[in-house]
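User: Before I run my own analysis I want an independent prediction to cross-check against. Here's the chain; please return only the structure tokens and, at the end, one sentence I can use as a sanity check.
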Amino acid sequence: MMLDTLYQEIILDHYKHPHGRGLRDPFDGEAHHVNPTCGDEITVRVPADFSDISYDGLGCSISQASASVMHDLLVGKTTGEIARIHEAFVALMQSRGQAEPDEDLLEDAVAFAGVAKFPARVKCALLPWMALKDAAARAGVDVTAEQVAEGTGGAR
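Assistant: Structure tokens:
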């Protein structure tokens, strides 16, 4: 039970003290996503080199904390690294709480392992990550696992 408490504290800390919040220029891709079930919204902006990831949104602690954690994890990473982290986070969220998260890869994002047990909240946690994927695509960068498998993920 102590681990769940720690995870809740990490999520609440990122919600109360968000990292990277506020839409910034310059950017090459932008995406706005809405979760129709709960009304959460997020806009994500990325430059093609991922030197920054900026976002702004409204919603529950899970969606907003997830955006803050995503910012910390992905800024300055290569597209290959981003694709691996993105894939690992999506897999964790789709595991219904059965997956053992890779702490070295996911860092604070492991705090969302408990969220995976609640299907209605999974969409909240994934909202910024799906917006990031679309914003990256609009910037001409593919951060899906397929491009990593093809070996094109390391280029910036």
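Sanity check: Strands lie at 29-34, 41-46, 54-58.
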